[in-house]
Structures are given as structure tokens and as C-alpha cells.
Model the fold of this input.
Amino acid sequence: MKIVIASDSYKGSLNSGEVAGAIEKGIKNVMEAEIVKMIIADGGEGTVDALVDARGGSYGHMVVSDPLGRSINAKYGVIGDAAVIEMAAASGITLLKEEERNPLITTTFGTGQLIKGALDSGCRRIYIGIGGSATNDGGLGMAQALGVSFTDKAGNELGSGGGELSKLYDIDIKNLDPRIKNTEIIIISDVTNPLCGEKGASNVYGPQKGADKEMIKTLDNNLLHYADVIKERLHKDILNIPGSGAAGGLGAGLIAMLNAKLCRGIETVLDLIGIDGHLKGSDLVITGEGKIDGQSIFGKVPVGVGKRAMKYNVPVIAIVGSVGEDYEKVYEHGINAVIDIVNRPMKLSEAVENASYLIEKAAENAMRIYSINRRA
Done:
């Protein structure tokens, strides 16, 4: 019997590899099987590890600026002649304390430094996962780190953060790192929000980054002005491109400045790790994530895995930290059963602390039920 384990991380608790290890223990408590463990991500946290693990790559490490300009250590992956970057490693919201969140001043400069590091490593294809940002600067900092000049009417360089964009008058790309012209930039994201408006970067994601109502209005107006200047100076209309609002407009900046191509997050990752080759001939797939609900059908790992497994008529069990509203929708997208790891009343802190054991026991119970079905 062959079982493929392909679960997302349980954010704030266990990474994808740790979840897979716990599921493997639960399976082995019941039966012997050929088990294939795959590290999975959707373009956000864990994407670098997933691709390096699947493709036998290596890591690069460098010192970059965090969202507030402080020096931190960050890593990126190298797979052949390609690099894999998580913008969250340099410009992510988890790098800030809650009281430090302020999208008027947070910057993507460190993400630009990671791109430069990948270029220095000789990579000429760069995959950039842009989930989990702390920023709303439209990729201003990223482009500044790569040599693009943004100036006000007086010719002064803009500072950092989304609050600076209101001053923007001119953009000069003549000093953009010349290696960019010969480099393929691929954005890994399932976010389809436009840059501005009710469904834009500021309105939808601004609150979680520390923006109040007034700040959201300011940030949205600033990104609109940013788009106007880009259209006038660079002759690129990025305002309503689906995904341009991803990561506080970093999607727009990457498209406008680096000619990046936007690709679907989970689908791109699944292709790159070669999951189809493992699904063919398998008997069961076990996936999961920290919380599954009706929104999971929009680009989350379990449903992405479930849809691939459907192609090969392989049943899929999702082992999850919790279930939310309308989670039953996933049954229409390749998931055959959902099992919640919480097996008795407990506090969230207790569930997080004991997540590995609870996942193991949930997997054990799943396999006992699956064994009964096989004997029937």
C-alpha cells in the first residue's frame, strides 16, 4: 500500500515537514505501508523549503533589511539555475510585533535585497512567493533595492513605506540592475485582488497590517497615484491586473519594474515538486492545514492536492487543526473526508502545544477507519 502525505503547515505550531512526520507515526501505529512525505506550501511560508526539499536544492543566506529597516538574516532556495524567494522572509508580518505594524512606513526593501542575492548566485529564473507581507508600498522598496529611482517634484528620493507614494512624481529605471533583463521573474500567488478600490490591497489586507480606516484611505489613494505615475512614466497599466494588489501591491511593482509573470500559487508549487508522479499508483493521500473552511477552495493546499488526486481516482483525507464555516465545500473539490485533531474540549493553547501528538492520533484513527473500509 502506498500513501502520499502532502499537508500544509499548521501556522504558529508545526511546519509542513513536522506535520508529515506526525501523520507518518499515526499510520505506522496501524499498518506498514510505503509512505511518501512531501513538504507543501501555497506560495507563502514554507515555499522555499518545499521546493528545495523536492528538487534537491540548496540554501543561500544573507543579511537584509526587515520591514522597518533593521538587519536580519534571511534565506532563499537555489534549485538548478533558479532561485526561490519568500518575500515574508524579509518583509513579512511575522517579523514585527503587533505594536510595530504600520504600513505607512514598512518597506519591501529587504525583498529586493533577496532578489539581488539570487542574481549574485547566478540564478536567471526567480520564483517569488509573496504571501504574508507587512507592507503596502507597492513594491517601492523592492525596486529601490534594485536601483530604481523614485523622486518627488523637487528631485528628492522618496523614503520608505506606502506613506511616501503620495509624493511620487518621477520614476527612473536606467540604473535598474541590468541582470533583470535576462532573468525570468515568476510570482507565486493565489491572490487575485486588484491594486486599488474596495477589493484592493489596502482595503482588504491593510487592517491586518495595522491600518485604521483613515490610514486605509490614505494608502489606497497613494497606490492609485503610484499606478498613475507608472502608467505615465513607464507606459504600463497595472491598476486592475488581477493579483497586482498582492502583498500590499508588491505584485504591481514586480510586474511594472521587473516584467514579472503572475502564476497560481498552489498549482505552480505542485508542478515544481512533481506531485503527480507520486500520486500515480498511490492508494491514499493524506493532506491538511491548520484550519479548513469554505475559503479553502480558493487556492489552499488541501484542495490543491485534492484536485490533483482526483485525476488519478485516489481518495483524500484532510487532517486539520479545526474546521470553520462551510468547510463541507471542500468535498466538491477532491477531499473525501475531514478529520479534526481536537478530540476533546481543550484550550487553543493546549491544542497548539500538543499538535504533533493530536495529529498522530487523528492519523491513527483515520487509518483504522480506512482499514475497515478496505476489508469490507
